[in-house]
Write a structure and sequence with these properties.
Helices cover 33% and strands 34% of the residues. The protein is of the alpha+beta class. A three-stranded antiparallel sheet has the order 1-3-2, with helices on one face. The chain is elongated, with a radius of gyration of 20 Å.
């Protein structure tokens, strides 16, 4: 198989924004990210603004960064952007200890995460059946 056939050209333009070293575990971020995937950007930012979770502020900041990347670098229409993918991964875990009774110690883990948000333009159907 030639190299040209291996390279798959995706006709849909995607914009990525990565936020590294978020002071939260992936376990706390994943339910929030599952709730915003597939939504329009304005609705996702609105939902995150009213969320009670502390990490939603960092997720909102990453989405806003991706929107500004799309607008300034790729001249995309920000009204037609949807959240194509949103996922998080583990980074480092700071290990601390807390002194306990009788000379013992208990471990404390402070996990960090990386957050990746990928936006894409929503293709709308036109009346004549072609995609714009």
């Amino acid at each position: 198989m030639s190299k040209e056939l291996k390279k798959k050209v995706d006709p849909i333009m995607k914009v990525k924004s990565i936020n590294k070293s978020i002071r939260s575990s992936t376990r706390k971020m994943k339910p929030i990210l599952r709730g915003i995937v597939g939504k329009k950007v304005e609705y996702a930012i609105r939902d995150l603004s009213f969320s009670d979770k502390r990490v939603s502020k960092d997720i909102k900041k990453t989405i806003s960064s991706a929107v500004s990347n799309a607008e300034n670098n790729f001249q995309m229409d920000i009204d037609s952007l949807i959240i194509k993918e949103a996922y998080c991964g583990k980074q480092v875990v700071m290990k601390r200890f807390r002194a306990r009774a009788k000379g013992r110690a208990a471990g404390i883990k402070k996990p960090y995460s990386n957050l990746t948000v990928i936006l894409a333009e929503n293709k709308k159907e036109v009346k004549d059946g072609t995609k714009s």
